[in-house]
């Protein structure tokens, strides 16, 4: 009788119609696959049941988060090798229904069911959230933000390091420190917004207060930072007090739609607009436009995806939606620019810095791996595995141009047409 790994390899290759690019280690200790290749470890039969009941990304994610599936070796290498089978098959790839019209594929599924016996669907890991309606009401947005950001400030300190900035850094060189690159990103935003002493800045989605503190300390502005996370707000207020900036920085637990004390000279929105939702995006842009004084600037720093053939069809990344950013949505940069201009903004500069995000994520993964025992104690083994997979897969997505991140500088240009921008604007770096 064949051992489990060899039997599993044979059935998966029969089902997929392609050789497995990784080595397999099964629950009985047996191994099969290309010698020297990175190893995917199937720790129990429950992993197969998860994959059979939810073929594709979500089944793999559930098996990973539950600890039923793991990697021996370089996680990036395994993700690179299996991406073509899971994430990059494209719109022209055969769907499961078409695949199972093949008699050999049906036989492979029957064989996998026998290996996975008993064929009962395991409960999803407790870290999974129930799919919502993507209405992006104030209540659902608060709940989604809490799921992602109220994991614990101590956990985020491990991942993000001393800068406590949870967005793409701006790297002068690949071997710079994460802290230096994050400081350079904050300064880049401040220069693009042309912050000056005595001005007012609204920081939408202020996180742990890093942008607000930098703007007040280095550029002399008064800052209002808003977040929906109570844990972030408490942490940010303590940092502001420790810096002696309570007279210039106010941190609020407040929805951006409820800010009513404009006008502001500038608005920074860094890593927040991904939570807004496509149906609410024009409302978001109009709200920020109304909060700016004439000539005021908006810096919108946002992850974007590649355009689809059919933009009318709603699609969601099942793993991200279930475990990382509930109700999050990515849009192509063209859609973002169009919505900002529809709200009245004049878009003056668009800069893609996707390679910078890949570097940032690799540093966050390294931080998490270095602090793994403490990260697990602070959250849960499943939550730590979610973050490791999400950040490593995202790093590869940025490196391969699957997603990007863009800084859009927009101006509330007054009726006179005087934008206040210099003739040669790109003096910020």
TrEMBL record:
Record key words, sorted: Lipid metabolism, Methyltransferase, S-adenosyl-L-methionine, Transferase
InterPro entries: CFA/CMAS, CMAS, MeTfrase_dom, SAM-dependent_MTases_sf
Alphabetical list of CDD domains matching this protein: AdoMet_MTases
Record's keyword annotation contains S-adenosyl-L-methionine: yes
Keyword Nuclease attached: no
A GO molecular-function descriptor: methyltransferase activity
Domain Polyketide synthase-like methyltransferase: 155-410
Signal peptide: none
SUPFAM superfamilies attached to this UniProt entry: S-adenosyl-L-methionine-dependent methyltransferases
Classification via Pfam families: CMAS (PF02353)
A biological process term (GO) from this entry: methylation
Domain of life of the native organism: Bacteria
Family annotation (PANTHER family): CYCLOPROPANE-FATTY-ACYL-PHOSPHOLIPID SYNTHASE
Family: Belongs to the CFA/CMAS family.
Name of the protein described by the UniProt record: Cyclopropane-fatty-acyl-phospholipid synthase
